[in-house]
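Much of what follows relies on a compact textual record of a protein's fold. With that in mind, consider the following protein and its fold in token form.
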Amino acid sequence: MEPDLLSYQIALTLIPGVGDVNGKRLVAYCGGVEAVFLESRSALLKIPGIGQATVNSVLSQHVFHVVEKEILFIEKNEVQPLFFTDSNYPQRLLNCEDGPLMLYYKGTANLNAPRMIAFVGTRKASDYGRERCEEMIADLKLKDVVVVSGLAYGIDSCAHRKALECGMDTIGVMGHGLDRIYPFQHQKLAMSMLENGGLLTEFPSGTNPDRENFPKRNRIVAGICDAVVVIESGIKGGAMITATLANSYNRDAFAVPGRTNDEYSKGCNMLIKSNRAALAESAKDISYIMGWDDRKVQTKSQTSLFVELSEDEKRLLALMDSKKAVGMDHLIVSTAMPPSKVASALLNLEFEGMVKSLPGKLYKIIP
């Protein structure tokens, strides 16, 4: 049987040594995923980052016998395959260089919902951590937010359950194939999520929940969302990895503070101290920083405003476009001002009702 488009897409993800970055490079240089497997050896070897071993694997096409089995699983279980060139692929992940080539999805939630937020934390959540998690999610219900987490014990499962209880969509990102649920105690929870949310993975069926898969899972959790909230974490762990990834993807990160002598508050407190996460005591803090308040701001006339503005604030406004959002990093570079001064001036402009903060540390002039 001749391979179809989906067969080529799955095959590319299975080639040893390709990976997400080189996979996208192959598709771009060859002009399509089918063309990758039809290209000549000499042409493939000219592509940057593609070595002899990878070219041999592409040309051998030995992965196609596995592809047929995966397609049968997809069809039988009504799984939605999402290649990175598909229109319904999560658009936020396209901004992440190492975003997955292929995703496998089963569920009802919109993976491109306007507002998506991840709740992550320790598997050994305390009563305090669970209470903060449940309060925040309940208070975000009216913001029409999709809740994302990793279907693990502790904060993850607490976030999923509370979202379902509140009638909110919730998506579990998994570190294994869709042919199983790990941990198996969460099977009932996962089945409920299929009706009000979904299950998402980059791993084909038959993939075990091996240790090395979970950091890869965490990059999807961070990349698919507008923000990540860390509720209870030690200095090391999956939640800290997810927060670090959120920073690298220019996503907003929040951390719930805890007592200084609590082992699973040390990670959150460190994220706040090192300015890698904003302090979040409640959902109000998240909504305000994310611009989800839907509050109407009384704006003043531009003439009177400029009389009251500082020179730094005037410089920032002059660089900003009322039609497009501008990143804080761009403003820092363009003005050569210290980051602290730029942040302070932007905050004042927000208070004046002239500038609105957007997800991803972007700012826009309010018309």
